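Allow me, if you will, to draw on your knowledge of protein folds for a short while. I have a record of one protein: its chain in single-letter code and its fold written as C-alpha cells. The full record is reproduced below for your convenience:
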Amino acid sequence: MDSNAFQAVLRWPEQLEKFPPCQDACPSGNDIRGWIATINQSEAQELSREDACTLAWNRLVSTNPFPATMGRICPAPCETRCNRNFKDGAVGIHALERYIGDWALRNRLALPLIDVNPQHESIGVIGAGPAGLSFAFQMARRGYPVTIYEAAPEPGGMLRYGIPEYRLPKNVRDGEIRRILDLGVDLRLDTRVGREVTLAGLYTRHSRLFLGIGAQQGRSLRIPGEEGPGVWTGVDYLNQVISGRNLTVGDRVVVIGGGNSAINAARVTRRTGAAVFLLYRRTREEMPANEREIEDALQEDINIEYLASPREILRDGSSIRAIIVQKMQLAKPDKSGRRRPVPIPGGEYELPVDSVIAAISQEPAWEDLRGLRPRGIWMECDATGRVDEQMWAGGDVLGLGIASRAIAQGRQAAEVMHAQLRGLGTIAPHKGLAITADQIRLDYYGEQSPVKQPTSPPEEWLNEPDREICQTIPEDQFQQEITRCFSCGLCFGCQRCWMYCNPSSYTRLQETGPGAYFSLDLDSCEGCGKCIEICPCGFLSPRESAQASIA
C-alpha cells in the first residue's frame, strides 16, 4: 500500500484554562467561576461547608468588598453572558453573591489582608463612595495608612444617599463599609476638600492621592418655570429624602428621566402616597434603567409616559400648577448610538402636577476643587486612572456608570499605585481567553430551572415603605443554584477524560482543587481526540493538528 494512500488526523489534548464569560462581563472583574467552584467542589477538596464559604468569600471580596450590597443593586451583566443561557437560563450569580455577602455579615468575617507588614507611604482619598472605599480597601489590605476625606456626614456616597432602603438596607451597607474601616482606615467626615482642608495641603501631607468625589450635582432641565420652589434635581431629592428630611411634594408629582436615579426618585415619591408620572423622551427599549426596577415601578402604579419631554413648568405665583409635555418621535441615531428623539409638531399637552423632579443626569461638583477642574465635565486621566504623578481617580468623576465599575476603577488604581510605589512593574489586565457556548458540551448537563429570588407581595410594598422588597434565597436554593454553574473553561473533576482514555494517559492527582484533578501524559497519548470531544466544560483543547501516515 502506498504510504500516502491512507492518512489519519491525530489530535493531542491540552489542558488549557479559558476565561469565563461571566467574569469577562463583570465590570469588577470578579472571579465568579472561582468562588462558585470553591463551594460547588468543596466535597472533592474535603472542605467543610463553612470553610468552603469562607474561602469563596475571601476570593469574592478580593475584587469587590461589597458582595451583600452589589448582590442587591448590581444589574448583573454577568448573567447576560452566562453560557447557561443557551441551556435553561443563566446561573443566578446575583442571588449567589448576595447569599455569600449576607452569610459573611452574619458570621462577622473580616476582610482578608495581602500584606501584614506596614508600608510607610501615606495615602489620601477624597470621597467615601464606592470607588473611594474600594481603593481604600485595596491599599489598606496592602499595609498602607489610608485617610479618607468625606464631605458628607456619613460614608457611602450614592450607596447611602442615592439608593432607597427598600433596595439596600442600612445595616447591610453600613456593615460592609465598617469592615473596610476596621482595617485601620481613618475616615474624616464633614470634611470638604477646598474648605476644611486644602487640596495643596493633601498633596503635601500624602505620598499619593485618589479622587473619588462621584457626581453629586444634578443637571437642570433648562426650561421656563424651573426656577422656584417645588423643583428638585433627582440626586438632591434622593439625598434629602433618604437623609430623613420631610419634603412637601403634593398629590401629583412628575419625574423626568429614564435611568435608575429617575426610577428610584419615582418609587420613593410613590411611597408618600402621591400619584407619580415619569416622563422619558425615548421608548422603553432605550430606557437605561434596570429592567427589574422598571417592572417594579409599574407594579406600584407609577405612570410611565414614553416619548415625552418637558417643555415648560407653569406656575400660579410661586406654586407649580402644571407642566407642558412635548410628544416626541425617534429619528436617526445620535452620538450615543440611540435613535434621537425629536418633537412632534403640535404634540403638546398640559399635565397638572404639584412638584417636578429632574433626574436627567448628574455631574461632579467642582466649585471647591477649582485646581483640578478639567476642560470638560469629567476628570481627565490615563487608562489606569492616573491624573498626575501623585493622583489617581475613579468612579463617576470619570463619567457616569454603575457601582461595580466604580469599585473596579478603585481597585485598578490601587494595584497600579502599589506597583509603582514598590517598583513591581506593569500590571497585567484582568482578561484571558474567553470560552463560548459552542465550546461546551451542553448535553452533558441536566435541565435545571434557575432560582427565583423571593419577594414580598407587591400589595405590601407601599404599606411598609422601608421594608426590603427582595429577600436572600434560602440555603437549600443556594445549594441547588450553585450546582448549575458549568465551570466554563475549568476542570471540575467529572472524570470523563480519565474514564474514556484507552492508554490511561490521565492520572488522578492526590492534591486537588478547581482546575487540578488529573495530570496528562502526552507520551502515552494516542492522539484519538476522544477526551477533547467529551470534555463538558471546554477545559481540554486540541494542540496543533498533526497528520500521521499509516502504511
Residues 217-362 form a domain with the FAD/NAD(P)-binding domain fold (CATH 3.50.50.60). The longest strand covers residues 319-333. The chain has four domains: 7-15+492-549, 21-109+469-482, 123-215+364-422, 217-362.
